[in-house]
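Q: What structure does this chain adopt?
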Amino acid sequence: MAARKLPLSTIRRLALALPGVEEGMSYGTPAFRLKGKLIARLHQDGSSIMFKLGFEARDHLMQADPRTFFITEHYRNYPSVLARLDRLDIRDLGALFARAIDLAMAKRTRPRPIRRA
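A:
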């Protein structure tokens, strides 16, 4: 992985080029949503980005590359992972956004339960 920090302009350009992704704010930082569902946001530490990838993917990434992927206590019970921006390159970023979008779309395509009166 690259040894340089990805600037917000690069992150924004890549995210907003993806179909259906919109930018907003979350916890006072730039955030990216797909049809209203949060998929990623810059972390308030200014040096990492959070992706909503699911518990299995999160655990795999943290085990495979703990210098890049980690969580804070806040994210312990959430299916999200933090990634250090100085350890990612544009390909890594694209792959992480793709995984987050896949998870958001998978959840959206599940049928809603039928409510009986």
